[in-house]
Every structure is written in structure tokens, then in C-alpha cells.
Write a structure and sequence with these properties.
The chain has 1008 residues and is an alpha/beta fold. The chain is built from 39 helices and 23 strands. Strand 16, helix 34 and strand 17 (800-806) form a beta-alpha-beta unit. It is globular and about 95 Å long. The N and C termini lie far apart (91 Å). Residues 288-289, 320, 322, 324, 349, 351-356, 373-377, 379-380, 403-406, 409, 426-428, 449, 468, 473-475, 505 line the site of flavin-adenine dinucleotide.
Length: 1008
């Protein structure tokens, strides 16, 4: 049973995206020290930094290497790219390509000889890269590019590859304690570790499949047993003994808010079982902190396990809290309540947080009202100090574990800590060694977070550490850089935060303000219950109302609508823009109703529905911006004196907008608002399947101020109503999105008309492919494939249809793809835990079943999602993937969740691109590769309107990824792009001979 939501939990919830200045104002007082304490902290921090700097000069090792190649240098980024990918690439050809790709860029020479470090100087580069096989002569040291060429020529690429792999392993080993838990435990006995406690982390990232989750579970179990058996002298309680860190995302393939019920039912018992095992062996367990949208879920799991009868009285279960999150102080407050309720302490590892850059990016993409994390480093530090104080002042609730490598933070904790109160510091293996050698000498306990695993498993971890070390705001980077004055390194964050003119970082605009001239559409995350709950409640209330019926129009009514449109008064551009901006606001205000309608009428899941509402609002604001920019004022053209020349854009007349059922709101609104923004009256014919959404959209547009005569809705069949509209001589243009076949029919109908030849803007289907080489990360590929192929039940024109896998990487990708597809949940689209809703109608279902039957005969089924028994007989079609022998097996778009997978040899990449092009479509394409040359090759060769690299290939954002294809996929211009409106307009020039009446007065006036 869930625990009640107490006031601290409510406060926590309300603070998800808290205003930064408010949050900071609350914390400053708590973080600030009395002047005398503050002085002591500065002295202590200064001493620490000076000692570290002296000792670091003596051992010029990895720290200086990382500093030399910090992430503000191109070479640092390139090196990180090599580190991230090289070790996992199975085939030599691709590995060599990656090396050539990265080492041929960048100014490696400038690093040569700049540093005394053994690792940084060129000789050691040679040694590191080639394992003593090749050493650099003095002449080569000045020219790394040439040196590399010679090296490759002399030693051969295989040697360079082996050497570089060796180098990367060296770098990786810096951050890994051992390949197996046995190795790691053994190493913990070495002299360098004698002063430390340890928490072992079984490397591995999120599980994508049930099998992965089981493998991680078993790894945790056996690690706990090994740690339990490990004797540590003088360690008498769980705080002193070695422990283990657990990543919840590794233990469940769907550890996400939307799957909360399932996660609670399945993951809680797993964590419980590990915790009980750990208790038996007196091994402390800490749950790692992950992404912001998983915070509350992790708290629920923690609370459930912590409160379980089997763990009563045991203080060995803890969790990490990220101070960079605005909710952090409330998490501490809530945890104190949980601890007191259970009458025992919680081990809390206070960290600053490891996912800052991705949290900021995600919030921007999701259009959130704010950021879940602070946007200034000093604010994160202040939050850390305030949270630490709360923990220190609640010794009955917490055993404090302060994880930081920052000397100022360390010095403050020492200052605040009452004598005799048990606590410990924590650091990551490979980081902060010098600092903590000092701190432990001062008598303070410190635990090392000790990653355990093979090289392949550590890559994502390694990248996080490289990002952390390479950031120029990072303490570990600054402490090692002797050009930064000590006083600046140990600056008091409270003073720094207060000195800032604004609490929030002005260089990181709020997600809403991302686009400057126009507002970003408002979004929310479902995990943010304070924001999501009211919307969800409204969706539920709409779900129970009966659906209105919209009657079809007749061809005569369609004609009448065009007649009315012809007489419509169109307001000037500035007014049209204002109307469209009001429409955007109204669409957002009606988000719940639209999401409910999209689920009921179009089978859209809630996240898809939200995305569509946001896209509709973005269209309104984007076209409003373009209308103001291009239609409000004539453009002055340069010409001879005595003459004025202006170019003006004007509407053409009634535009017919024919939209599809798969984006019944966004595309409908996009077409209509573009035509109106350009000064045209509109007659809109929605898809037969989705008239209700269209009708509601029209109401909103009219409410926003679109004149009634300027917008008519004529629902009905394409063959009658659509045909009547297209063939009318009143129609001054047609915007259409739908199948290539219908586009051809419209084109012919327009051509058959007498009268003016009018613009026809068509967006049609695609046979979209994704190309994956062996430098790609299989887990990331699968996440993007599942989203691209199966979201919206594959019923997007941008959806992935053909996945082309380089043969060396294919087995692993296919294995994960199968496991991840098995985790998809089909069902009622209005339920948050549904991944895939129904297909649009019986015709669509029949077509998919027929194609699947053909594939069953001709191809190999790779995987198929489960179709629950109660959905059989409905409009559900289980997503699936087939392996086909070659691209010849498919030649047309199959609109639904059927993915075709084909393997290719690395040397045939160009041929694959050509074969995809040869299908004649040109809508979207995806590439997953870490090799820029490969990406560039595809970019230069591919005929695709939208090419996506290392991400999914759906969900184009208005104004960011203008959408539309070429060839069989459409006429252009791109919807949501800067050129779209022009196609809806007439261009007129206006020339006045200003010298006609009495000569050229202005020329004469300006003559000398
Ligand atoms: C034992 C241990 C366990 C850990 N476990 C976890 C864990 O479970 N989950 C997790 O997320 N991390 C974890 N970490 C990683 C930890 O978050 C980082 O090591 C830590 O943030 C580094 O902090 P610092 O005090 O050493 O460095 P500092 O350099 O003083 O601080 C770096 C912090 O500032 C943040 N920051 C940088 N720029 C900005 C900005 N403009 N605005 C706001 N904040 C900014 C960074 O994101 C980072 O959090 C763990 C670390 C240790 C030592």
C-alpha cells in the first residue's frame, strides 16, 4: 500500500520546477556561515588546495592529462568521443575509421610539450597509444597529424588501433576499481586504499530488457555475497563496513514514472530481496540517484523497502540525494520524517548530481515551465551546503555521507559537524585522491565509490566522469589548474550566489523563452504530479462524456463555403499574427480536452497527444512570427534614384486545406494557420476519421479572432467533398497532407481545371530508413528505433520502416530490440502506462495484417509485442520487426508498427544509401554513428527532407526541424520552416517614379 502524502512530500512535489530566485533565497540563509566560521572554512580549504597542488605537481598523472584535454578544447571533445566508442566497436575497419576520423581533426600539436605531465607530453602519447611499440622522435612531436600518418604507415593501422584501445583502457582503468568484484575487493586491501571505506558499484547502465535486468540482479546478489564475506579489520558496524551502490534503472527495464504500478509491483520486491540479503551480510546498500523524473518513484521504492518488517532496526539502507535539484531540501525534510516514523537513521549520500547537462536539454525540449535543476554552479553549491546543514542538524534521522571532491564543500562540512557526530565523506575512485589523502589524515572517514566491471560496461560511466572532470566549472578541473588563483578556487559559493545580478543563469533561458522572438509551447512531465495531476483529472472527466457526432458536409455545402470564403475580409498581417498568438494560448489552455479527444478519436497515447497539442501551438506562434516579419511591411528594394520599389506579399484567395487523421490537430492547425497567416481565407477538410478534433480546433481559432467567413470546416469524404473543393475555380491553392496516391489525384484534378494554375503543397508518405554502423551504442539505437518505429502505433509519416544494421552490430541490436519490444504495453491510449494504442480503423488493421502475413512467409520474425487477450478483436496490432534479406523485399510505405530490418557490410554503406534513395521517397532518414565521415557521407548522398543523427527520427519541432520531404514524399516547402508561408502568397511589386512630378527633389537636395 502507498504511504500517505504528507506535507513535506507535498512541498517536495510543488518544488519540481521551482523559481530559481525563490529557491535560492530560501537556502542562502541556511547555507551562510557566521563570519568567524567562514574564515575558518576559507583557511581550511586554502590549506587543502595548496597541499593538493603541491602533491599533484609531483605526480603528473591522469589529472593533468584530463586538464590538458579539457572539454573546452576540441581535442578534449574528440578524445571523449574516442573513449566513448572505441572499446565497444567489434570490427577493425570501423574502429580504424573512428580513430582516423577523430585524430585527423583537432590541433593535437598545440598540446605537445605544454605540460610536464608524463601522460601529456608527446613521447608518452606515443607510449600510451602504441604501448611502447613506437616512440616519437623530436621532429614528429611538432606535428601530430603527420606523426599519426607516419605512425599508421610505419606500424600499420592495426597497431595504432590496438595501441589506442590500450590507451583507452588505461584511461578507463583510472576510474574502475576492478573487472570483477573479487579483483576490486582485493585491490581495496592495497596501501593506496588502506585509509578508505568502499561502496562497490556494479557497472552497467539502464536495463532495456528483462534479461538485462535479471543479469544485473544476479550481479548485485553475488557482489553482496562477496562483500559480505570480505573481512575488514576494525569495521564493526554497517557504516564502517564496505557497501554496495545500486542503480534502480539496472534492475527493471521500465523503471519510469508512466509504469509506476508495474514498477512498484515488480521492482520493490527485487530491491527488498537485495536489501535483506545485504542485511544478512551487514553490507550497506545505497540507491543511486538518477534522472529528475525518476526522483519520486525512487523515493516511493525506498520508503516501501525501508519501512518493511524485514529491515526493522537496520540502518544499512540509504539513498543518494542530488543537491542540484530544486527539490533537494524538501527531499531531506521528507526523509527525516520517514526516518523518524521508523525510528532509525537513513544513510543519505548527498551528491551534487551527475546529469546536469541532460536535465537542462530535456527541460528545454519538453517546454517545461522551469528547470528541475539549478542553472548556476554556485546555486548548486549553496543548495548542497543547505542540505548538508539540514542533515547534520538531524542526527537522529541521518547518517551523513557527503560525496564531493570540492575542498570548499569539504571544509564547510567539517566546520558544521559537531564533534563526535558520526559521518563520512565519499569520493569517486580515480578522483579527489590527493584531497582525501589529506582529509583522512585529519581523521575524517571517507568512502570510495568503486565501480566494478568490464571495459565495455564502463563507457557511459566513463563519459559521465570525463564530462565531470572536463567541465571548466568543475572543482577537480580547477584545483589542478595552477593558473587559477587559490582564492578563486575556494571562493565562498554563498557570497558568489548573492553577488549574481540574477539568481538564474541568463545564458540559459527558461524553456519557454528558448526561441526568443516567439514563445516555446508549454509542456509538462507526467512525473511532475503538481503540474500533471490537474490535467490528468480533466482528461478523465472528458473521457466519460459522450462524443458529439459531426455530420458530413455535402459537395454543395463545400461550394458554398468557398463562396463565403471568397468574400471574407482578411485582417492585416499584424492583426492576423495577434489572432494566431491568442489561438496558441487557447490551444494550450485546452490541452486536457485536446489530449482526451486525441486519445478517443485518433487513438493517440497521452504523451503523443501532449506532443501534438504543443506542435499545434508552435505552428500558431511560428506563423504569427513569419506573418509579422514578411507580411506586415513591404520590403524596400534597391533601385535607381528617383524611383521607389517595394515588394509586397498578399493572400491569394481561398485556400483548401486537406489534413490527415494521424495528426488531426497539429497538421490541421498547421495548414490552416499558415494559409491564414499569409492572408488567405481557408476552407478546411479534415480526415473522415477525425472531424471532431478538427471541429474543436476551428472553434478555438474562431474564438481567438479568425473571422468567421475566413475559416469554414467541411468534413466529409475526399471523393465527394474533397473533390468538390479541389475542382472549384474559386480555390486559389491547396495544402494537402496524406498519401502519395491521393496527392496525385488532387494534382490531376487541379490540372484539369480551367482558370488560373494554383499552388499545390503536398506532404506525403515515406519509406524511411535508419542506418546504423558498428560505432553506435546498441542501447541508444534501440531506444530510438522503438520510438521511431512504434510510437503512435507507427502511424506517422516520419516513422522508421527500414532499419539497416551493419552486420557486426546486428546481433546485439536485434537481441535488445527483441527484449525491449517485449516490454511494450498495448492498450487504452488514455492510460498513461500505454505505449501503443489502436490503429486508426479496420481498413488499416486489415492492411497491416495482410502485410504481416506476407512477411511471415517471406521474412524472419524477430520480435512481436504481446497483444493482451482482452484487446483481441479490437483495432490493436502488435508492433513487430522482421528481418528481410535485402531492401528489395519492400517497396512501399506500410503505415503501422511493422519494422523491417536488414543487415549490410561496412563497405556497402554507400550502396545502402543509394538503394534507399532508389525507392523514390525522400522524407526522413536516421543515422547512428560516432564517425563524422560516415555521417557526412550519408548526408551528402541521402535524398531525405529530414536527416537525424544519433537520435530518433520522429517528432520534428516547428521552426527547429522544418518538416517535409522530396521525391514521392512531397512538393515542399517544409511545414514549420521559414519558407512555408511564401508558397501561400502572391508577390506584388509596387514601383513609383518619384521624379515624375517636377523632378528628383531628394537627389538634388543631397547633391554637393
Ligand atoms: C560517492 C559518490 C557517489 C555518487 N553518486 C551519484 C548518484 O547516485 N547520482 C548522481 O547524480 N551523482 C552521483 N555522484 C556524482 C556527483 O554528482 C558528482 O561527482 C558531483 O556532482 C561532483 O561534485 P563536486 O562537489 O565534487 O564538484 P563541483 O565541481 O564542486 O560541483 C559539480 C556540480 O555542480 C553542478 N554544476 C555545474 N555547472 C552548473 C550550473 N551551471 N548550474 C548548476 N549546477 C552546475 C554539476 O552538475 C555538478 O553536480 C556521486 C559522487 C560520489 C563522489
Amino acid at each position: 500500500m502507498d504511504q500517505p502524502v504528507t506535507p513535506p512530500r507535498e512541498r517536495l512535489r510543488a518544488a519540481y520546477l521551482r523559481d530559481e530566485s525563490e529557491a535560492l533565497a530560501d537556502l542562502i540563509g541556511e547555507a551562510r556561515l557566521a563570519p568567524e566560521s567562514s574564515r575558518r572554512v576559507q583557511d581550511r580549504a586554502r590549506t587543502l588546495v595548496e597541499k593538493v597542488r603541491t602533491s599533484q605537481q609531483a605526480v603528473a598523472g591522469m589529472q593533468s592529462f584530463l586538464r590538458e584535454y579539457d572539454l573546452s578544447s576540441q581535442e578534449g571533445v574528440l578524445l571523449m568521443c574516442v573513449a566513448e566508442a572505441l572499446l565497444r566497436i567489434p570490427d577493425a575497419a570501423t574502429a580504424d575509421k573512428l580513430i582516423r576520423d577523430k585524430l585527423s581533426q583537432g590541433d593535437w600539436e598545440r598540446h605537445v610539450g605544454r605540460n610536464n605531465s608524463l601522460l601529456v607530453n608527446a613521447g608518452t602519447w606515443g607510449m600510451m597509444l602504441t604501448g611502447k611499440l613506437v616512440s616519437l622522435d623530436a621532429a614528429s612531436a611538432g606535428n601530430a597529424g603527420a606523426w599519426f600518418g607516419r605512425l599508421a604507415a610505419r606500424a600499420g593501422e592495426p597497431v595504432v588501433r590496438v595501441a589506442l584501445r590500450q590507451g583507452m583502457k588505461l584511461m578507463a582503468e583510472q576510474f574502475v576499481m576492478g573487472r570483477t568484484i573479487g579483483d576490486a575487493l582485493e585491490r581495496s586491501r592495497s596501501a593506496e586504499h588502506a585509509a578508505y571505506r568502499h561502496s562497490y558499484d556494479m557497472l552497467g547502465e539502464a536495463a532495456f530488457t528483462a534479461a538485462d535486468a535479471e543479469r544485473y540482479f544476479a550481479a548485485y546478489e553475488s557482489a553482496i555475497d562477496s562483500i559480505a564475506a570480505h573481512r575488514v579489520e576494525g569495521a564493526s558496524n554497517v557504516f564502517q563496513r564496505p557497501g554496495i551502490s545500486i542503480k534502480l534503472s539496472a534492475l527493471h527495464p521500465r523503471y519510469e514514472y508512466a509504469q509506476r504500478e508495474r514498477v512498484m509491483a515488480e521492482l520493490v520486491p527485487r530491491v527488498q530481496s537485495l536489501a535483506e540479503r545485504a542485511r544478512r551480510g551487514e553490507v550497506g546498500v545505497t540507491l543511486d540517484a538518477e534522472e529528475a523524473d525518476r526522483l519520486e518513484l525512487s523515493l516511493d521504492i525506498f520508503e516501501r523497502v525501508f519501512a518493511s518488517a524485514a529491515l526493522q532496526g537496520w540502518e544499512g539502507l540509504g539513498l543518494a540525494v542530488q543537491a542540484y535539484q530544486k527539490r533537494a531540501p524538501f527531499v531531506i525534510e521528507w526523509l527525516a520524517e520517514v526516518a523518524r516514523r521508523q525510528r532509525r537513521r537513513i544513510m543519505v549520500r548527498l551528491v551534487k548530481g551527475a546529469y546536469w547537462d541532460s536535465e537542462v536539454k530535456r527541460a528545454q525540449m519538453q517546454g517545461l515551465a522551469g528547470y528541475p535543476v539549478y542553472t548556476r554552479k554556485a546555486n548548486t553549491d549553496v543548495s548542497y551546503l543547505a542540505c548538508a546543514r539540514r542533515m547534520i542538524e538531524a542526527p537522529d534521522a541521518f547518517y551523513g555521507q557527503f560525496a564531493t571532491h570540492n575542498a570548499q564543500t569539504v571544509a564547510t562540512i567539517i566546520e558544521r559537524m559537531p564533534a563526535g557526530q558520526p559521518f563520512e565523506f565519499q569520493r569517486l575512485h580515480g578522483m579527489g585522491d590527493d584531497l582525501y589523502d589529506e582529509v583522512t589524515r585529519m581523521g575524517h572517514a571517507c568512502r570510495v565509490y568503486a565501480p566494478v566491471g568490464s571495459h565495455e560496461d564502463l563507457l557511459p560511466y566513463l563519459v559521465r566522469r570525463l564530462l565531470e572532470n572536463g567541465a571548466n566549472t568543475s572543482f577537480v578541473n580547477r584545483i589542478a589548474d595552477s593558473s587559477i588563483p587559490v582564492e578563486s578556487v575556494i571562493a565562498d559559493p554563498v557570497a558568489a550566489a548573492q553577488a549574481n545580478a540574477s539568481a538564474a543563469n541568463p545564458r540559459i533561458p527558461l524553456p519557454r523563452d528558448l526561441y526568443g522572438e516567439r514563445a516555446n509551447s508549454a509542456g509538462f512531465v507526467f512525473a511532475d504530479e503538481a503540474a500533471a495531476a490537474p490535467v490528468m483529472a480533466r482528461i478523465a472527466s472528458f473521457a466519460s462524456r459522450p462524443l458529439e457526432r459531426i455530420a458530413d458536409a455535402t459537395p454543395a455545402q463545400a461550394q458554398r463555403a468557398l463562396e463565403v470564403a471568397s468574400g471574407a475580409e482578411i485582417p492585416p498581417a499584424a492583426e492576423r499574427a495577434a489572432i494566431l498568438e491568442r489561438a496558441a494560448d487557447l490551444i494550450e489552455a485546452n490541452v486536457a480536452q485536446f489530449m482526451a479527444l486525441l486519445a478517443r478519436e485518433a487513438g493517440k497515447t497521452l504523451p503523443d497527444g501532449l506532443g501534438e497539442v504543443r506542435e499545434a501551438a508552435d505552428f500558431c506562434r511560428y506563423y504569427a512570427m513569419l506573418a509579422r516579419r514578411h507580411f506586415a511591411q513591404p520590403e524596400e528594394l534597391t533601385g535607381p534614384t528617383g524611383e521607389s520599389n517595394r515588394l509586397m506579399l498578399a493572400g491569394r484567395g481561398p485556400f483548401v486545406c486537406i489534413s490527415p487523421w494521424n495528426f488531426p490537430l497539429a497538421i490541421f492547425v498547421g495548414q490552416v494557420t499558415a494559409a491564414f497567416a499569409a492572408g488567405n481565407p481557408v476552407v478546411a477538410k479534415p480526415a473522415e476519421q477525425t472531424p471532431l478534433i478538427a471541429s474543436r480546433a476551428v472553434e478555438v481559432l474562431l474564438e481567438a479572432g479568425v473571422p468567421r467567413a475566413a475559416l469554414s470546416l467541411v468534413p466529409g469524404p475526399g471523393e465527394t467533398v474533397g473533390a468538390a473543393l479541389v475542382s472549384s475555380l474559386r480555390t486559389a491553392g491547396v495544402a494537402f497532407t496524406g498519401s502519395t496516391g491521393t496527392a496525385r489525384a488532387i494534382n490531376r484534378a487541379l490540372a484539369a481545371r480551367d482558370g488560373p494554375i494554383v499552388p499545390f503543397i503536398a506532404e506525403t508518405g515515406g519509406l524511411n530508413a535508419m542506418l546504423v554502423d558498428s560505432s553506435a551504442l546498441p542501447e541508444q539505437v534501440v531506444a530510438d528505433v522503438i520510438a521511431s518505429a512504434f510510437n503512435s502505433a507507427g502511424q506517422r509519416c516520419s516513422a522508421l520502416r527500414i532499419l539497416c544494421l551493419q552486420e557486426e552490430i546486428a546481433p546485439r541490436v536485434i537481441e535488445i530490440l527483441a527484449g525491449a519490444t517485449a516490454e511494450l504495453r498495448l492498450g487504452d491510449p488514455a492510460r498513461l502506462d500505454t505505449d501503443v494504442g489502436p490503429v486508426i480503423d479496420a481498413d488499416a488493421l486489415r492492411m497491416l495484417e495482410e502485410h504481416a502475413a506476407k512477411m511471415d512467409r517471406e521474412a524472419k520474425l524477430i520480435c512481436k509485442a504481446k497483444l493482451p487477450a482482452d484487446l483481441k478483436g479490437g483495432l490493436f496490432f502488435a508492433p513487430r520487426a522482421y528481418e528481410i534479406a535485402s531492401l528489395d523485399a519492400i517497396d512501399h510505405e506500410v503505415f503501422g508498427p511493422i519494422l523491417h530490418v536488414v543487415r549490410f557490410a561496412a563497405a556497402d554503406l554507400e550502396k545502402v544509401v543509394d538503394a534507399v534513395n532508389a525507392k523514390g521517397y525522400g522524407l526522413t532518414m536516421g543515422v547512428h554513428s560516432r564517425i563524422e565521415d560516415t555521417v557526412e557521407l550519408v548526408r551528402a548522398r541521402a535524398c531525405a527532407g529530414n536527416l537525424y543523427v544519433n537520435r530518433n527520427m520522429i517528432g520534428a519541432t516547428v521552426g527547429v526541424q522544418p518538416f517535409g520531404g522530396e521525391g514521392l514524399s512531397g512538393t515542399g516547402p517544409k511545414a514549420g520552416g521559414p519558407h512555408y508561408l511564401f508558397r501561400f502568397a502572391n508577390e506584388r511589386t509596387f514601383t513609383v517614379n518619384t521624379a515624375a512630378a517636377g523632378g528628383n527633389a531628394s537627389l538634388i537636395a543631397s547633391s554637393e
